[in-house]
Amino acid sequence: MNTNYEKGGTQKDIYGKAEVINVPCPFCASNRYKEIYKERGSLGVVRCQNCDLIYINPRLVNPEKVYWGDSGKYFEEAKLIFEGKMPHHRDKNYLEDLKLIYYYKPSGNFLDIGTNMGFFLRNAKKWKDWNLYGVEPSPSLSEIARNHFGLNIKTAFLEDAGFESNFFDIVTMTDVFEHISSPNKMLKEINRILKPDGILFIKVPNGLFNLFKFRMAKIMNKLNKYDIFDSYEHLVHYSGDTLKKMLEKNGFDIVKIKVGSPIQLPVWHEFVGSYYQYPCPWFLDYKRHTARSFLYFISKIEFYLFGKNVGYLAPNIITIAKKKGV
Length: 326
Known about the structure:
The protein is of the alpha/beta class. 31% of the residues lie in helices and 22% in strands. The strands form three sheets. A seven-stranded mixed sheet has the order 8-7-6-9-10-13-12, sandwiched between helices. A four-stranded antiparallel sheet has the order 2-3-4-11. β9, α6 and β10 form a beta-alpha-beta unit. The longest helix is centred in the C-terminal third of the chain and has 20 residues, at 286-305. The radius of gyration is 19 Å and the shape is globular. The termini are far apart. The model has no long low-confidence stretch (mean pLDDT 94).
């Protein structure tokens, strides 16, 4: 694990016991769990023995504040994107997601939860029939999204944002739901603000894929080199099954589930000491780039061979859901 570089957030390599709290399962509230691993000192990766959900326990006391960092440092991470000189390294993924959303709902009120600096919604502006809204609790990130992309972003947690009932045609959480400490509460609020015929789009990292990476690293005796579970920020690690159960419990039916494309992360920090948000040449990280692409290809075969269930090799899970009974 190499995190010795300048970054906008407040994440640390090691957390002490005074910085964490023990929590019950975010889905079923059980306190029965089995520990899988310890990351960053005191953060525990566990699996609920009642509902099988993988989650972080102990976790940070206020994990969302990891993103309440310095706006100047955040701006420097993405300066060339704001200046229009470089694409974001996730633009390809974002456009794939937006095309899928458009297929199901080509117009209407569109809310993005956890907007961050606005990179996902900035791509959504290409579709003119969506009325775009965002909600982001980080003061620094939401300010950047408003100032540099002209986006309509509320600085708030969703439950405090004051949106009307049955207002949105589309609600999205793109690489956000895994950050939510109270997912049942979040889904109930989304159910309230979503129109009866609206859609909910969720993309999350695949928890089973993280288990696969963990087991491979353990076999090769390389666990200390990786931050596999991103436990300081990713509080819940969903499989296809646990995500489906959570949606159903909170009044949703899955319309579509699929394997999400891999995210090719930049590795500028390994060479220049800064984590730039824009892509780096593939040859700077050709081994991981090739491995991600290969596993994605195999995961798609795995998906169809096992009855369209997301297996261990899929990097990400994408779901489209609607309210029950629609």
